[in-house]
Amino acid sequence: MGRSHGGPAYLIGLYRARGFRSLEAIGTWGRMDGMDNEAFTYRDYAVWAALPMEELARDCDLQVFRATGPGGQGVNTTDSAVRLTHRPSGISVMARESRSQWQNRQRALRKLREILERRAVPPTPRRATKPSRGSQERRLAGKHRRSEVKRLRRRPLDE
Questions:
Q1: In CATH, which of 3.40.350.10, 3.90.230.10, 3.30.160.20, 3.40.50.2300 is domain 33-119?
Q2: pTM here?
Q3: Which pairing describes strands 60-65 and 92-95: parallel, antiparallel, or unpaired?
């Protein structure tokens, strides 16, 4: 017989660790596909950007395919283009510059790290500013002038 790992609680923890959200009402597991960008903050991206290249590569799905464009027989016969999809965030990058699959994989990893580093920048805090008294008066004076121009364009009232 197979080993028991603690029953349903173990399975729930295992599925959650692999990216599954919860048991849906119909009895299937809903997979988190990484497209919920509202769930990720700059801190999440910073953690992923700080990972070593090997660990970052382990978190990615790798697809290889034939590159298109100039290059003739060298391009048309080798699967050298690489697409990496970062599973936790859903970010997908592609590299097809080189004829070497290994070099394209390294380029794709560098592109992915650059994207993660760009998204890891914390937002600048917004300072609330109050308009000065002079700017409020100028704005209201401009509105008053405009309303006078519009009032004069109206049809005169017959008395």
A1: 3.30.160.20
A2: 0.57
A3: unpaired
